[in-house]
Amino acid sequence: MAKKKKKTQKKQVFKIDRDCIYCEKGEDPHYKDYRALRKFMSDRARIYGKMRTGLCTKHQRRMTVAIKRARHLGLLPFTPQI
């Protein structure tokens, strides 16, 4: 007898439909505005993903670069603060 293969169920991913706040304002994230960039970081100083922030792909990439620049200049932490 031939063995039957089990069908694997696909995991459903639900996207949250949000408008990008930077597209609505018509501006880009900037490293000097570190207070606004903190909203896109966890308490462990990790950058949230696009699904969690609700940003478009273009602004998510620019936001990541802005956070990294602010970290390099000492405006944002690399590691969580105790």
Record the SSE blueprint.
Layout: H1 21-25, H2 34-37, H3 50-53, H4 57-72
List keywords for this structure.
82 residues; 4 helices; single chain; mainly alpha
Q: Could you describe the 3D structure shown?
A:
The protein is built from four helices and no strands. With about 80 residues, the chain is an all-alpha fold. It has a domain of about 50 residues: Irregular (30s Ribosomal Protein S18), CATH 4.10.640.10. It is elongated and about 70 Å long.
Helix percent reads 25-40%
CATH level-3 fold name of the domain at 21-72:
30s Ribosomal Protein S18
How many strands appear in the DSSP assignment? 0
- Succession of helices and strands: HHHH
Rough outline: elongated
Number of helices: 4
Distance between the termini: 62 Å
What is the CATH C level class of the domain at 21-72, in words?
Few Secondary Structures
Low-confidence stretches: none
| Mean of pLDDT | 88
Reported for the largest beta sheet, the result is: none
Could you provide a short overview of the structure?
With 82 residues, the chain is mainly alpha-helical.
